[in-house]
Amino acid sequence: MTTRRADIVTAIKARLQRWLFRVGGPEAGPITLGQRRIFVLPTGFGLALALTLLVMLLASINYTLSLGFALTFLIGGVAWVSIHHAFRNLVDLTVSPGRSEAVFCGEAARFGVQFHNTGRRPRLGLQLWPSGGAPGDDGFDIAPQAGAVHFVAIPTRQRGWLQLPRLHLETRHPLGLIRAWSLFQPDQRCLVYPTPAADAPPLHHDGDDHPGSTANGRGRDDFAGLRHHQASDSPRHVAWKSVARGGPWRTKEFDGGGSQRVWLDWQHLPPGAGIEARLSRLTRWVVDADAAGLEYGLRLPGVELPPATGSAHRHACLAALALFGLPTAHAQPAS
Q: Transmembrane ranges (predicted)?
């Protein structure tokens, strides 16, 4: 019964927030912060000043102090104008999703959020953080008719797609008496790779069958010629002199036994290991093979990536491991 009551309260709270803040989920960019999406309330300092002004007003009335009236209404007028400035500091700002680089599980995902100021006045003293979290200390400004990118760090707890949560944008400019804020959720995701195993056995590539089967392939000892460039080729093997002369992109080939193709095969892992343990160990081997400059391929149930090198191939292998066994539209909830 208690659980059911908690679910009802959570559902009511979610519907109230969607109605009040007009944020029901990820929003396609660009997002314009109109006047109906900006909320204004006094800060603690503003409430203390309001109480002080009330006492000053009562004292001025009681003792008929002309200077007291003047000072009270002067300070009150400045505080009232600060409400307008705090509101104008956010209104008509445009928010768009930025870039987010893939990370390993356990690392913080950094989401880039793009702001564009179409007005002729600067936006000062802005702060951005995930809704429900603690505000950060790194405020930022946006110049007139200019843009800015601010990064939000979100902790990762599982592999897969991580959806950017609802964000809280706030300003207390100019006097700290008023806080104006808005909530929004750009439609942006970050891919989270599995955590590389810390206790994985070293990657062997001398002909052993474990952890992956190997076969002789193109070596890297003696220059053998040029071939058409592929996106997965390592930049170290590009014929840059030919490219600099305006020629086509070519990749150098080498002969020799200095390198081998390595297969990282799901079937060669210990059968008693769980899915996450296998993925973690394969992730470690992908990282090690890439660091060693080896040509490596990846075999998973239903997935096979042929041996290659380069950052694109590394990302393809790690992405296959990150999304293995997950629904296509899987998105990790951010909490």
A: 38-59, 65-83
Q: Is residue 164 part of a domain?
A: yes
State the Rg of the chain over Cα. Answer: 29
Q: What are phi and psi of 313, to 5 degrees?
A: -70, -40
Burial of 106 (0-12, 13-18, 19+ CB in 10 A): middle
Query: Per-residue pLDDT tens for 79-137?
Result: 999 999 999 999 999 999 999 999 999 999 999 999 999 999 999 999 999 988 878 77
In a domain, 82, yes or no: yes
Structure tokens at 53: 């002004």
Domain boundary among the residues 167, 193, 219 is at: 193
* Amino acid at site 172: R
Q: What is the DSSP letter of 30?
A: P
HSE value, Cβ hemisphere, 13 Å, CA-based, for 93: 31
Tokens of 260: 């081998």
Q: Is the bond preceding 211 in cis, omega lying within 30 degrees of 0?
A: yes
Pairwise CA distance, residues 31 & 206, whole Å: 55
Domain limits at 305?
A: 259-322
3-class secondary-structure state, position 317? helix
Query: Residue 167 — left, alpha, or beta (φ > 0 → left; ψ -120 to 50 → alpha)?
Result: beta
Return d(Cα 278, Cα 136) in angstroms, integer. Answer: 37
Q: Which residues contact 30 (CB under 8 A, 6 or more apart)?
A: 94, 95, 96, 116
Quote the number of domains for the chain: 2
Structure pTM?
0.75
Q: Looking up tokens 């500091």, which residue turns up? A: 89
Residue entry with tokens 């800060």:
43
- The pLDDT-based confidence of 261 (bands split at 50, 70, 90) is confident
> Is the bond preceding 301 in cis, omega lying within 30 degrees of 0?
no
